[in-house]
Write a structure and sequence with these properties.
This protein is α/β, with parallel strands linked by helices and 196 residues long. The chain is built from eight helices and seven strands; from the N terminus they run αβαβαββαβαβαβαα. The strands form two sheets. Strands 2-1-5-6-7 form a five-stranded parallel β-sheet, with helices on both faces. The C terminus is likely disordered.
Length: 196
């Protein structure tokens, strides 16, 4: 029982960006994600997803600035996108995300058409999974373990980068404060004062 409660609390911290141009499919996906205790942000196009992630320039009062400067984006743990959308397709969105600072975030592509070439193209392009619509609760349960491992991997990458940064700081501090360097400075200061 306590383990189930921990699992639900952990899921509530997962934030999913859902992208679909179909209102019905988007509402269904949002409802399934919320029932599964995920935090959900829904957008209706690839363009709006890119804007939300701060990956495109938007026009504001004649000034061009990235949306990430004007809107603070909360952490996204998973992106689920439809494949067939007007404008930027789900595959194009996948490629843009994987070529950006969001590349570590798992992307799941979904489509009502189960074409093997489309599935392979998306998986080879970096998608974690390819789902056939309509998405079911069982599909989301299967994604949960991938989401957990992705978050653990990202936390491990963050921890190791923090450790490397701390190691570099220690080297810099220990290298500049050695007793030989300090005594050398003191000797040179004495020499300057003694010669005057």
């Amino acid at each position: 029982m306590a383990r189930d409660l921990d699992s639900v609390q952990q899921q509530q911290h997962f934030h999913v960006l859902a992208v679909d141009d179909s209102l019905i499919d988007r509402k269904l996906l949002e409802r399934l994600l919320r029932v599964s205790s995920y935090q959900v942000t829904c957008v209706d196009s690839g363009d709006k997803a890119l804007q939300y992630l701060g990956l495109v320039d938007v026009e504001e009062n004649g000034d061009c600035s990235t949306i990430s400067e004007s809107v603070q984006v909360s952490e996204i743990n998973l992106i689920i996108t439809d494949y067939s959308m007007p404008g930027i397709s789900g595959y194009d969105l996948l490629k843009r995300i994987k070529g950006s600072s969001w590349k570590h975030i798992p992307v799941v592509v979904m489509s009502s058409e189960n074409e093997p070439s489309r599935v392979n193209m998306c998986l080879e392009g970096g998608a974690e999974e390819f789902l056939v619509k309509p998405v079911k609760l069982s599909d989301l349960r299967k994604l949960h373990s991938q989401l957990e491992s992705s978050i653990k991997d990202n936390n491990n990458k963050y921890d190791s980068s923090q450790q490397r940064a701390m190691g570099t700081k220690r080297k810099l501090v220990s290298g500049s404060s050695s007793s030989d360097d300090v005594s050398g400075i003191r000797k040179s200061q004495r020499t300057i004062f003694d010669s005057t």
